[in-house]
Structures are given as structure tokens and as C-alpha cells.
Amino acid sequence: MKKIFLILLLFLSYSSFSQTIPKSKGYVSDYENIFTPEQNSQLTKLLLDYEKETTIEIAILTVPDFESDAADFAQKTAEKWGIGKKDINNGLLILMSKNKGVIRFQTGYGLEGYIPDGWLKHIGDSVISVSKNSYDIPILLIEKIKQRIGKEGYSQDHNKELIDKNKKAKSKEESPIEWMLTHMSWYWILIIVVLWFLLFLISPDTALWILFFALSKGESDSDSGSKGFGGGLFGGGGSTSSWK
Amino acid sequence: MKTGWIVLIVIVVLGFIGVGSIVGSYNGLVNQQEPVTAAWSQVENVYQRRADLVPNLVNTVKGYADFEKATLTAVIEARAKATSMNIDASKLTPDQIQAFQANQGGLSQALGKLMVVAEQYPNLKANEGFLNLQAQLEGTENRITVERQKYNLAAQTYNTSRRQFPTSIFASIFGFGEKPYFKAEEGAKIVPKVIF
After folding, report:
1. pLDDT digits over A125-181, tens only?
2. Rounded to an integer, what distance in angstroms lies between the CA atom of residue A60 and that of residue A92?
3. What residue spans of chain A are helical by DSSP H?
4. Which residues of B touch A120 (CB under 8 A)?
5. Mean pLDDT across chain A
6. Would the pLDDT of A5 be above 80?
7. CA-CA distance, B191 to B137, in Å (whole number)?
8. N or C: at which end does chain A have fewer Cβ atoms within 10 angstroms?
9. What is this structure's pTM?
10. What is the pLDDT of residue B122?
11. Across the interface, do B135 and A121 touch by the CB < 8 Å criterion?
12. In whole angstroms, how large is the CA radius of gyration of chain B?
């Protein structure tokens, strides 16, 4: 009960916190409408292929306006969406706002070592100085970022174990009894066993029915992550470039 | 005979629930404390990261011979002060966190002033190494903000469950104290103005 209350409290405070955070539409969330439908699907395919190849998740968000500063807005959005794989945190958010004249990179914990802030700032500035075109910019940026990450020797192999483990945990649905054995301490289990025995003395039918129910496995819900992102975390890293 | 057994079982169950709630409260607090400690070490990490950038920054700036000595000395001194504190995360007190914040705030101000002064040196501003350090420093300041928020959130979760019944009774018996918060610094975001 206490836990449920706490979770509810956390959820409430979180949702009131994040009123202004847009919903993810997948790898490309173009709220400013700066891409044509073809460009949008081309970018999506590019990022999807990259994820398949390396497990790195790069998301693009375009918005005409946002409250607070770009770093704060990008941080909250990236973490809410959970870009990047869980525990590996290999996500990157590219926030673009033509109206505000700003491009912001938000780097997940796991990519900070491969694409440091100083380098991102340099790349952001230099790409914008070469092209002002809304579509060329992300294409060029992604190209540079891919090159750099490849050169730094990023390999998904040393993360494979973690990814597989997370996948397994997701696909395997536990029965209530299994959940009890892994999540509860011995005294709670003992109490439940004694209570069940008590119930058995009073009404054997009900007790057996409950036992059957506890042993059966639930249907697994296939909804993993929000809009396909893995649940990566962000620590405020990244850089902001002026796009004017 | 049958009722006798049931009464006995009920007593045993109640006993277990009593012991269970004590042990459960204790373990719960221990579990809740861990994220706070972890969040605190992240806070220290990002502050350390900033402190590590300072020597590089000072060396880069030093190359510009006519750069104000006083500004550089202030940065070096503030860094020494900020890195001198040793804090045990599990015994964090409000006084400690305040002192920590004040020391780090001193370095923030000194660095802020350095950046303002640097604006006066076009050659320095064109230096690639300096630009890189500037971007890194900015990124680190953002990280500090984020990790402090995350710490406060973890501390809040812990404090909330610490105050709840029946945990509140056992918290004081077992010596689980409140976790202090970072307070928003007044004018922290305001860059000091230097008038020439």
C-alpha cells in the first residue's frame, strides 16, 4: 500500500513536472514541420538502420518553441522518452528549433566518452556554417557522429550480454508465486503460507483455487518502452549551437 | 480443539507481522538510502569533473601574457577550496551540504568571472583549445544541475518514506536521519558583470 502510494505520488509529481514535454513520435518527431514526409521517412530509416547496426538510439525532435533553456528542455525530454538502451544509456537527442534558432545535442551517459561536449559543439557550429538547410543539417550531423563513434571503437559486443539480459527479463512473464519468491523476504512468504493454510482449514476449495491462480502465468504485455526507446538515462551532457 | 489451533496460528501470524514490519522498515530504509548515496557520488563526480577542467583552462588562458593575474589566482584558490572537502555520503548533514555548496559556488563565480574577462581577448576567443574547454565547462555546469536535481529527488523519496508510519518509529531508533537538500542558489545563473 505504502509503495503504491509512493509510486502514485512520484508519478503525479512527475507528470505535473513534465506538462510541456512533447510526446515522442518515434525516431523523428517533427513538431515544427521542417521536413517533408519523404525526408521524415528517410531520416527515420537512417536512424533505425543505425540502431539495428549498433544498438545506439538517436532521436530527432523539432519544436517551434519551448520553455526554459535548451539544455534543460532537451534533458527532460530525452530522459522522459528514455532514448538509448537501458543500463547502457547509449542515446542521443538532437533538438532542433528553426524558430528559436537553436540546435541542441543531449548525450546519454553511455555516449559521453565517444562524443564529448567540446567535439559536438565544434561539429554543430561547423555543420551549420556549411549549410542552413533543415534537412541537410541532421543528415550531415548524423554522418559526422557515426564516423566519430565508429572511429572511437564503439562496439555493441560488450553490451550484448546486458541487452540480452534485459530482453529476457522482458519476455519472460512470472507467475505470482515466482514473483513472490524473488521479491519478498522469507518472513512475508511464511506469513502468506500460514494464512493460506488457515484458509485451507476453513475452505479447502477456495484455497486450492487461489493456489492454482498463483501458479498460472500471466499474459505478457508486449509494450516495451515508450515508442520503441529502450529506457536510457541522461546526465545533462551535450552542447548547444546557434542556428541562425 | 480446532479453534485452539486457529487461535495459535493467528497469534503466530500476528507475531510474524510485528517482526516483519520492523525488519521490513529497516530493510526498506537501507534500500531507499542506496539511491541517495549513489546520487550523491554522481554529484561529487560532476563537480570533480569541473575541477579537473580548471588546470587546463588556466594553462590555456595563461598563454595570453597580459591576462589579468588576479582573475586566474581567484580561480585557482577557489578550486583548491572546492576540492578540499571530504564528505561521507551516508552521514550527510545540512551544514555539510551547505558548506559544500558554498565552496563550489565560489568556484562557479570565479569561473564565471574568468569567462567574462576572456571576452576582452579576441585572440583567446579564437583559440580552438579555449573554445573546446568553454564547451566542456558549459556541459559540466549542465551536468551539475542535472545531478543535483536527481540527488534532491532521491533524497525526497527517502525522506518521504522515512516519515511514514510505521517506518517513522523505527527510523529514529535505528538512527536513519533526514537527508538534506541542495537549495537553489540565488542569482546562481547570473553571470557576474565586470565593468572596465
Report:
1. 999 999 989 999 999 999 999 999 998 888 776 676 777 777 666 655 667 777 777
2. 9
3. 2-17, 37-54, 70-81, 117-130, 136-151, 157-171, 176-183, 186-202, 204-215
4. 135
5. 84
6. no
7. 14
8. N
9. 0.75
10. 87
11. yes
12. 25
- Proportion of chain B above pLDDT 70, given as a percent: 93
CB contact under 8 A, A122 and B132: yes
Neighboring chain B residues of A198 at a CB cutoff of 8 Å: 6, 9-10, 13
Task: Provide, as residue numbers in chain B, all residues whose Cβ is less than 8 Å from the Cβ of A7.
Answer: none
Q: Are A94 and A241 in contact (CB under 8 A)?
A: no
CA distances to B37, B41, B47 from B44, rounded to whole Å, are: 11, 5, 5
Angle at A26 between CA A21 and CA A27, to 5 degrees: 105
Residue type, B191: V
What's the pLDDT score for residue A222? 42
Q: Which of B54, B47, B51, B48 is nearest to B133 (CA)?
A: B54
Asked if the Cβ–Cβ distance from A201 to B146 is below 8 Å, we say no
CA torsion angle A157 A159 A161 A164 (round to 10): -100
What contacts A59, CB < 8 A, 6 or more positions away? Answer: A24, A27, A28, A29, A47, A78, A81, A83, A91, A92, A93, A94, A229
Residue A26's pLDDT band (boundaries 50, 70, 90)? very high
pLDDT in tens, B144-184: 999 999 999 999 999 998 888 878 888 888 888 889 999 87
Per the DSSP assignment, residues forming a β-bridge with A85 are A231
What the block records as the C-alpha cell of B185 is 542558489
Q: Closest by alpha carbon to B104, among B46, B176, B174, B152?
A: B46
Written as nine digits, the cell of B105 is: 559556488
Alpha carbon distance A116, B49 (integer Å) = 13
Residue of A nearest to B18 (CA): A187
What average pLDDT does this structure show over B123-136? 89
Cβ-Cβ contacts under 8 Å for B121 (sequence gap 6 or more): B64, B67
pLDDT of residue A7 exceeding 90: no
Report whether A20 contacts A67 (CB < 8 A).
yes
What is the full DSSP assignment across A128-159? HHH---TTHHHHHHHHHHHHHHHHTT--SHHH
Q: What is the distance between the alpha carbons of residues A244 and B170, in angstroms, rounded to a whole number?
A: 59
Question: Tell me, what DSSP letter sits at residue A111?
Answer: G
